[in-house]
Structures are given as C-alpha cells and as structure tokens.
Amino acid sequence: MNLLTDSLPAGITIDGGFYPIVTDYRAWLRFSMLMQSDKTGEEKTVGMLSMLKGKLPPRFEETISAILAFYTGGEPAEEQGTPRAETHASRIYDFAYDSGLIYAAFFQQYGIDLQRAEFHWWQFKALFNALSEDTQFMKVVGYRGMDLSKIKDKTQREFYSKMKKQYALPIPQSEKEQLSKIEQALLNGGDLTGLI
Questions:
Q1: Which neighbouring-strand residues pair with 17?
Q2: What is the arithmetic mean of pLDDT over 129-151?
Q3: 183: helix, strand or coil
Q4: CB-count exposure of residue 163 (10 Å: 0-12, 13-18, 19+)
Q5: N or C: which end of the chain has fewer CB atoms below 10 A?
C-alpha cells in the first residue's frame, strides 16, 4: 500500500469477501490502548472484532490476522509484531498517558488540532511516525528510550538518568502487584517459581 498513490482501505478482504472496518484514528487509538491493557484475551478479541462494521467474516484466525494487519498499517502482523502486553520497561510512549504531549506535538508540527481533525488510522500513523525531535513528545520519548550504558560522559549520563526518571511512564497496576509479590517472596525467603 502506497499512501501517495493508493486509496486508503475501508475494509478487509477475507476469502474474496469485503468486510468494512472502522477507519477513524480515535477508534484505533482506543484499540491500541486496549491491546496494552490488563484486559483478558477474550476482552481483547471482542475489542478486535468490534472494529468491523456489519457481519463478521467466517474465518476467525484470518479475520484476526487481517484486523492486526490493518492496525499495523497493512503489514502482516508477524512482520510488525502483534500488539501485546509489553513490559513496562520496554514501552517508550503510551497513547493515554502521553495524550497531551501528542496533541501538542501535532499542533506544533502540523498545525493540526486533533480535537477537530478527522483522519484515517493510516494517515494518523504516518504523521505520528514522522513527528520531529523538536517536539516535546519526541524529546520525552528519546529520554525514555535512552540506553544509559552507552553514554560514557558521567555528567551526560546523570542528566539522562534524571530525565529518564522524570519522564518515566507510570507502572501499570498489574506490574506493581507482580513486583510486590516478588518483593514479598524475596523478603520472606519464599519461592519465586511462577512469579518470574
């Protein structure tokens, strides 16, 4: 799919049948947040299927793959990586937590008011992925993703360590609970089996 020459898709094709899909970027942002949440696999599957308009395709696995391919911008899910519950440490942005920074970045760079804008999900992704390092959002993302072990200068390493802590994403409740269980097991000489 070429954003410059092809029309944006309005659905998915399964076994030769066309199935309309929600294309609004806000719905896909909610979808992304759902995939990152602590919801059950069943709840996430229901959320995926709710992205379709009308009747569901007959083939479940192909449908899920097609929805995930739409989510990733047309790439097969296995090439892009499926939405999954990432560990807190690996995340460098969160659509919910960073919503204000993302809103400001779009306004700063493109003059786009995301409260008024109507975009196809793929248009939003293209603009989002091209955000400049001049925006505060991308600066924060840079701090979060900084590999401190690669910084040789002590002063710079201390600065980036401070920024990384200052702009860290909050730890999800499920991870807090898991860390608490591990801490209790370690303090009480308990068994870590099944906790790590």
A1: 14
A2: 96
A3: helix
A4: middle
A5: C
